[in-house]
Design brief:
This protein has 316 residues and is an alpha/beta fold. It is built from eleven helices and twelve strands. The chain has helices at 14-25, 57-66, 80-85, 87-108, 141-160, 185-197, 215-227, 248-256, 270-277, 286-292, 300-314, and strands spanning 4-7, 30-34, 49-51, 71-74, 111-117, 164-169, 171-173, 199-202, 210-214, 239-240, 244-246, 263-266. Helix 1 (14-25) crosses helix 7 (215-227), helix 4 packs parallel to helix 5 and helix 8 (248-256) crosses helix 11. It is globular, with a radius of gyration of 19 Å. The structure holds nicotinamide-adenine-dinucleotide (NAD) and 2-amino-3-ketobutyric acid. 2-amino-3-ketobutyric acid (AKB) is lined by residues 79-80, 117-119, 171, 182-184.
Length: 316
């Protein structure tokens, strides 16, 4: 039975990944950790939860030893907008954190999941149907840490035989936990504002096209990739995945099918707009389909319907 450690477990992804892993592998076999204080509640209270700063190698060694860990989902990081506001901190958390995780994986023979991003590409990359193997010259500190992270995962796989696996995640849309300082956060905010106020002012321009996926698909993708037959995996840095390529105007139109009076206007934030303009408009995720059967269930309309229903219930 797998014994799993999750870093950055209180974030947008961890809040849904941890329950999914606990359902699949057993509550006691999934250790949720974060820099922020964990407040055990419900099922989490029955499982080990810990404070863990991924920039402190001793804390990682201690957790892996204490809980006899054999698999690490390393989620702790600063996202693109937060990273641009604090580049030195972003380098420390995103790079030292991953290095420490890979070193502890080398010491104890752990499997590692690393979440890369569409941010790992830059303005020199082919922007439509960006291939799995493409030019990667990002212009953000976030993207630089993601490319370097991908290369480090490749290196630890080929040099030390560590079982590293990763995804280049698109923007993730979800209702359980708020997003943590990214450029694609607008897509989540729009749903909250649509339900609460019937209107939203978007910080990206109407026609900014980016890849997105609904969180349940992303979680399934992470768990499936980690369980996939290793002999089928051609890439140990990160696989492109996507479920939809959409603009703010597309999402607003999908919301309007359920909330007809919903209004959107635009007050563009130049920093986040510049980040978005440097990213792909759509990814080619055929390698993920071929190698480990990536198959998202939610397109824009299915995601919008579910998101509005779940969020309306949550905000009651
Ligand atoms: P998030 O910002 O919501 O959560 C990150 C968590 O990491 C937070 O709970 C934070 O407290 C924790 N953290 C920060 N510094 C830490 C440290 N030093 N030690 C331990 N924990 C620390 O992020 P998320 O959206 O859950 O993303 C998780 C990972 O997935 C990140 O690597 C991110 O780059 C990647 N990713 C996310 C998205 C997305 O849309 N959410 C898309 C692409 C890639
Ligand atoms: C961000 O916007 O920073 C993240 C990502 C796509 O990596 N959501």
């Amino acid at each position: 039975m797998a014994r799993i450690l999750v870093t950055g477990a209180l974030g947008q992804i961890g809040s849904e990944l941890v329950p999914a892993l606990r359902q699949r592998y057993g509550v006691d076999n999934v250790v949720a950790t974060d820099l922020k204080a964990l407040q055990p509640s419900g099922a989490a209270a029955l499982a080990p939860d810990d404070h863990l700063d991924c920039t402190e190698p001793n804390q990682l060694h201690e957790a892996v030893r204490r809980y006899d860990i054999d698999s690490i989902y390393h989620l702790a990081a600063l996202l693109s907008a937060s990273a641009e506001a604090a580049p030195q901190l972003a380098w420390s958390v995103n790079m030292s954190g991953l290095y420490n995780v890979l070193e502890v994986a080398r010491a104890y023979g752990c499997q590692v999941f690393f979440p890369s991003s569409i941010g790992a590409f830059g303005p020199d990359t082919q922007r439509d149907m960006t291939p799995q193997v493409a030019v990667q010259r990002p212009t953000t500190i976030y993207g630089i840490t993601k490319v370097a992270g991908e290369l480090l995962c490749d290196y630890y796989a080929s040099r030390f035989g560590i079982d590293t696996r990763g995804l280049r995640l698109p923007g993730l849309i979800s209702y359980v936990a708020a997003p943590g300082g990214g450029t694609t956060d607008y897509a989540v905010e729009m749903f909250y504002h649509a339900i609460r106020y019937g209107r939203y002012t978007c910080f990206l321009s109407a026609d900014t096209r980016l890849d997105m996926a609904y969180m349940p698909d992303a979680i399934t993708g992470m768990v499936d990739l980690m369980a996939a037959d290793a002999s089928r995996l051609r890439y140990r840095n990160a696989y492109n995945i996507t479920a939809m390529s959409v603009t703010p105007e597309d999402i607003a139109a999908a919301i309007r099918k359920h909330i007809p009076g919903f209004e959107i206007d635009y007050d563009v934030d130049p920093v986040r707009q510049a980040i978005a303009d440097s990213w792909p408009r759509s990814l080619d995720d055929s390698a993920a389909h071929a190698d480990w059967d990536w198959a998202p269930r939610y397109d824009l309309d299915a995601m919008t319907k579910d998101m509005l229903a779940r969020l309306t219930e949550k905000l009651k």
